[in-house]
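During the reporting period the student researcher (J.K.) took over the structure-prediction task from the postdoctoral fellow and processed the backlog of single-chain submissions. One of the processed entries is reproduced below for the supervisory committee.
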Amino acid sequence: MSIEPVLDPHKLVKELDGRHLINGELVPAKNGKNFDVLNPATGKVIAQAAEGDADDVDVAVSIAKKAQKDWANRPARERGKLVAECGRILTQHVEELGRLVALESGKALRTESRVEASVLADMFVFFGGLASELKGETIPFNPNMMTLTTREPIGVVGAIIPWNVPLLLMAIKVAPALVAGNTVVVKSAEDTPFTVLRVCQIMQQVLPKGVLNILSGFGPGCGGPLVAHKDVKKVSFTGSVETGRTVYRAAAEKLIPVTLELGGKSPMIVMDDADLDKAIAGAVGGMRFTRQGQSCTASSRILVHEKLHDEFVSRLLAKVNTLKMGDPLDEETDIGTIINRKQRDKVCGYIEIGAQEGATKNELSALPSDPKLADGMFVRPVVFTDVKPDARIAREEIFGPVACVFKFKTFDEAIELANDSDFGLAATVWTKDLKTALTATKRLEAGFVQVNQNLVVQPNLSYGGVKLSGLGKEASLESMLEHFTHKKTIILNME
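J.K. obtained the following C-alpha cells:
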C-alpha cells in the first residue's frame, strides 16, 4: 500500500506520536516512555516522541544485523536501484516533509525547509546511481599471482544526526551506507524526531524489512548505547565537538571506524576587488541568517578589506534588515526560530558577551508582532563590528544568527586571521583575481573552500573538515567507499 503525502504537519506528528520504526513497523519504546516535542515558534507541545533506551537499541541492532546478510548478498546495482527508488518516492513528499521539518525545527518553509527536503530526495537518487562503483582493483604484484582487492560492507551502521538539518544529514549517512550493503540504525535528534521518522516510514515501501531502522531518545540513554553496542561496526555522527569526543572514545573502545562532523567557525574573505553585490548576497546566504545561523558552515567570521569595509558593513546591515522574521510555515517568512529555549539562551548570552568585550552590536530585522508567536524562540540577527580577534564571539561556535566583521589591510593578514581558529570546516574567498583565488584556496585551513559563492552541502561535493571540525568526508563517492566499506586483498597463486 502506497503512502500518500500528508500536508498538515500537525496531523502527521499525531500519527507518528510515541513511535520508533523497527523492522518496518512503527512501535512504542520498550519502556513505554515518551517525551514532549515542541514547536519552537510557539513553545507549545506538538506531540510526543518515543524515549528509546538500551533495550530499544538492542532490538533495533539485532534486527539490522539479521537483515544485513541478505541485503549485502543482493547485487550492488539492485541495492542502488532500490535506494534511488526511495529518492524518487521522497520527491513526491517534498512539500509534506518541508512543512513537517518547519514545524518541528522552526526553520522557515520557503527559504530553508522545502529546499532541504528537495536535497534529501536528490541525495538518495545520487547515491543509488553509484552502486556500480563499489569495485576493487587488480594489483601487479607478481606475474605468477593474481592479486586483487574487493570492497565489502562493514555491517550495522549507527547514524546519529543533529537537529539543524536533519533530512540532509540523515541522507548523507543512510544513502551511502545502504548502497554499500550495510544496514542502518538511526538515532534522531530529540528536538526533530518526526521528519526523519516519516522519511524512514516512506522508504519502507521499497526497502526490505530491517534494513533501515530509527530510534528517538536522548544522547546518554539512546545514543550512547547505540555507539557502544557490540554489533554496531561503524558510527557516523554529526554534532558538537564535546559530544563528538564522547562518541570517538566509545568507538575507540571497540576499535571501530567513525566519521565525525563537528562544526566550525568559518571565515569569509572579501578582497578589495570583490564584486560587492555578490559578496553581500554571499554573506547573507553564507551566514545562514534565514536558518538563524544554525549551520556548521555559517560564515560567522567575515574578513573585509579596509577599502570596502565601511560600505560592505552598511549594505550588509541594510540587507539583513529587510528579512522578515515570523511563523516558519508562512510563505512570507524569511527567518524562523532558534531550535529551543536552551539554545536561544546560549545565543543571547554570547550577544551579551560580545557587547561586554567592546564590540559594536548591530541588531537587525524585527521580532514577529503576532501574539501567537510571543513565546517562540525568535532572536534578532546581530552583526558585530570592531571585534578583537581573540574575543570569545570571534573564536567560539555560537550556532546562532551572530556574525563578526573584521577589517584587514593585506592578503597575508586575511589568511592569518582566517586560519587563526581551532575549527577548519569551510571557508570562502571573494575576489576577481585568479592568482589570489588559487593562492587562498591552497593556504586556507579548511576542508570545504569556495570562491565567489557559498553553496550548502550538495550531492557529489566531498564535504568534511580538518582540525576540530571532524574526521572524514561525506556526500560523495569517496565517502561511500572509504567510510562504509572495507577493502579485502585477495591473492591467487597460479603456479
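The committee noted the following: The CA atoms of residues 160 and 187 lie 5 Å apart.
J.K. will present the remaining backlog at the next meeting.
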